[in-house]
Task: inverse folding
């Protein structure tokens, strides 16, 4: 497993020699995904695909994010990336480099996954989907519609935004909470969440 690359605005990335997935974070070398990915790759029959960590500083210079994304965009064997920590900052710095952003990425202004399809660089926000799958794994089928239950989320961070956005999705029809309550220690994050929820045009108070 290669050591993580510490990215700067001047980093000269070497072209990938084999199919490569990148992990953009802060201390990627310590992440369990570095041990899990080879097993996933084997299970999915991805051949000799590898994962490479790229470390950026907290709220790094936009030029650093652009350097990383431009490299992935133009390098043939660099197929995409998982993004943690930098989801908001990266998209803000690189929005025009993406030919496609999925609906959640557009709504939340973040990307957690970068992929390529034909000549398109594509950005995705997957947290609402994975959070929703986690909820579905333990909530009884039809729970909200049957019980009239309300949802209370402690904190207004990214996880809370992902879960509440999933719960408000119109595709669930009547099986949605009667009310969603979010608490947070400071007001600005609540206001940001309220604005994103407003864009969903949900009838849920």
Result:
């Amino acid at each position: 497993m290669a050591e993580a690359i510490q990215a700067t605005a001047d980093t000269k990335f070497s072209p990938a020699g084999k199919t490569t997935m990148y992990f953009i974070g802060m201390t990627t070398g310590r992440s369990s995904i570095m041990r899990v990915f080879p097993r996933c790759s084997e299970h999915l029959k991805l051949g000799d695909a590898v994962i490479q960590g790229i470390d950026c500083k907290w709220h790094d210079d936009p030029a650093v994010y652009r350097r990383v994304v431009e490299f992935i965009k133009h390098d043939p064997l660099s197929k995409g990336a998982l993004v943690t920590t930098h989801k908001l900052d990266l998209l803000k710095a690189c929005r025009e480099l993406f030919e496609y952003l999925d609906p959640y990425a557009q709504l939340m202004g973040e990307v957690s996954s970068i992929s390529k399809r034909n000549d398109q660089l594509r950005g995705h926000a997957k947290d609402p989907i994975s959070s929703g799958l986690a909820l579905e794994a333990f909530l009884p089928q039809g729970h909200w519609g049957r019980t009239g239950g309300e949802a209370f989320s402690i904190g207004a961070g990214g996880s809370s935004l992902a879960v509440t956005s999933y719960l408000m999705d119109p595709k669930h029809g009547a099986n949605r909470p009667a009310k969603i309550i979010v608490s947070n220690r400071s007001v600005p994050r609540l206001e940001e969440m309220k604005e994103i929820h407003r864009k969903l045009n949900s009838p849920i108070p």
